[in-house]
Amino acid sequence: MQNKPIFYLVAGLIVLAIGTYFRYIPVSHLADYRLNGLARQFVLEKLGAEVERQVNLAYPGKTAAERAMITKQRFLEVLKKNRREIKSTERKNAAMLRASMPPELKTVHLIEADAYYYLGLTKNLIDTGAVSPKIKNGLYYNPLMMAPYGNYYFFDLHPYIGLMVYKLVSLFDRSMPLEQGVGYTSLFLAALACCIFLLFCYGEKMHPFPAFVSLLSFAAAPMFFQRSLYGWYDTDPYNVIFPLLIIFCLLAVLNRTGPSKQKIIFLAAAALVTGLYPMFWSGWIYAPISGLIFFVSIILYSGIRRDIPSAKEYGAYLGVYCAITVITAVIFRGSGGLIFSLKDTFERMAVFKMSDFPLWPDSYIMVSELKKISLAKMAVLAGGRVLSAVALTGLAVMLMKPHILGRDRAIVPKGLLVASFFVIPCAMAMSAERFAILLVVPTTVLFAMTVNSLYIRATTGPSIILKALTQAGLSAFILIPLSAMFIMDTQTPPVIYNETWDKIMSYLRDKTPSSSIVNTWWSPGHFITGMGRRRVLYDGATLEKPVGYWISRVFMAQSEREALGILRMIDSSGNKAVDFLTNRNFSLSKAIETINTVISLPTDKRGAALQPLLNADDAVKFLVLIDGAPDPAYLFLYTDLAEQTAGSEFMAYWDFKRADEFKNLKTTNPGYAKKILKEKAGNNYVRILWGISGGGPLYAEKASPEV
């Protein structure tokens, strides 16, 4: 009776309402937050000025320091005594500001820069019916990236999902802008994830009350919550949806005894979902590897128990899972796209894990979400310290003392399944914070299974006191996810794009030729391609590309000739001048040195400088690459770029000779190299990188360079 679907439906509707409300409020009311802040600032400044005036009149003989101390004390007393009147004045001022606020200040913008990359692709779908006219081997051609040639980049279906959501919500408001409409995509995806989690609870025959608490905790998991706020138009929610679907299907396999059609259906569904995953995220490969670990572990477990039939059964299931996964991935991505996806994933993971010294300056250490995090922070992001502690304790009990959690015959295999999807994400998150979202599903699933087992055990026993304490404790636990969502909502959402940026992008779009190239730092790159609709050389999707070094050299150039020389080279031929020299047996450091020397010379002296280095034909070809005729090009500067130069300094002053020496450490002194590489996010590693760049700013020893 307790497990009737109606109870789960009610629980699901309550959590969906709460989760959607808290996800929608922060960004949609950002203008109100700003107005309230301005109103409060105005009132406090006016009040402070009045208190200061009165103190100066009352104590003319006091020193300035004494009057300042009295003023501070009086100001705090006035704040405490007249709190209601001050709040009332703040509200009146906010209302006046709201009434006079121009429409553009009320516009809701997307969160983070990556959202504008996908917004640009969604605009392509509306304008042309496709994200790109050229899609092959799982890659699409983007003419706005990596100017002047464009770039083939990972193709995914997220813009199509965003367009469908926009068309759906625009039925209720025909005048809704695309930017505002696609902002709802994250809410729909979060709701879908909650529905799948509820299905998992129902499939595990959980009591509705612990199922409700677990679902609420899942919806409030910090990493999931923050990356599914309204306006988060990025692919992060798929990293919750797909692993959850895979685990749900594999749990359904474990819940059925003996070979059966239902087992095969759920197994095939798990494999199909795994094979579809690469259509939504390039780092999908961890999922089939986790699945492989699960099947191998359960085969070994069956062998230890001398259950040969089960070992053979799951051995066959392993073959079916792998075959369907590969076939599905090849069908949707193509064999070339699949190979590229695997290669790209392992290369990026090598960068995040710092498994080698970089020859080019490492842009990734400038991005906060790509830095190593502690186990404590990992626990917080995955669901909170208490939830994570319960989950990990439950996993230990599942694997070592399964009888404590009940009589489920499959409790150990279930523990092995969830653990298999926990191990790799844990290692990934230790290398880069952004991967902590992959821990949300295994952590909350373990929590749900543990809490449900303990709840049933406590409430079905003879002790009335234990039953009452259990119900009271679980009821009190509800306050944790609710308070977590409330606290996260009180923090200002990371909305970077605003009305000022929008005016600049409109100017670029309306006042510059469509073939223009915009040279700037990587941070606004997606704004320029998504909203300004102009080409860039450097953006958040191409952090690992060499052009970042050249852009930084422009910002740090000591002469106009040097800066213009670099801009002319990269705007006309990208990094081809470097490739040209390295293909002629120049070391990378020698190639960079040659280019930096030549572009600093007057045009009529460059040929003579190349005579000792290249033959006549190669010299001509090389000069064409560095002295070409680019399309209209602009240098885009903004306040943060001028005030926060650490990233540009780090990149621009990179010593390629020293970088090569450090890279050779793996051969000349492997022990020392291994020690340094293990300290990826530690001060020692950062000091070494800054040392290669000439020392860096004074705070370089305390933190990685950030923009």
Describe the structure.
The protein is mostly helical and 707 residues long. It contains 34 helices and six strands. The strands form two sheets. It has a three-stranded antiparallel sheet with strand order 1-2-3. A three-stranded parallel sheet has the order 5-4-6, with helices on one face. Helix 5 (114-128) runs parallel beside helix 22 and helix 9 (208-220) runs antiparallel to helix 18. The protein is globular and about 95 Å long.
Helix-strand blueprint:
Layout: H1 5-28, H2 30-58, H3 64-81, H4 83-100, H5 114-128, E1 135-136, E2 139-142, E3 151-154, H6 158-169, H7 178-181, H8 185-203, H9 208-220, H10 222-226, H11 238-254, H12 261-276, H13 286-304, H14 308-353, H15 375-382, H16 385-400, H17 411-431, H18 440-459, H19 464-477, H20 479-490, H21 499-511, E4 517-519, H22 525-532, E5 535-536, H23 547-556, H24 560-573, H25 576-582, H26 588-599, H27 603-610, H28 616-626, E6 633-635, H29 639-643, H30 646-652, H31 656-663, H32 665-668, H33 670-678, H34 683-692
Parallel strand pairs: 4-5, 4-6
Antiparallel strand pairs: 1-2, 2-3
Helix pairs in contact: 1-8, 1-9, 1-20, 2-3, 2-4, 5-6, 5-22, 8-9, 8-11, 9-18, 9-20, 11-12, 11-17, 12-14, 13-14, 13-17, 15-16, 16-17, 16-18, 17-18, 21-22, 23-24, 23-30, 25-26
Oligomer: single chain
What's the overall average pLDDT, rounded? 87
Structural class: mainly alpha
Which bin fits the share of residues in helices? 55-70%
Strand order of the largest sheet: 1-2-3
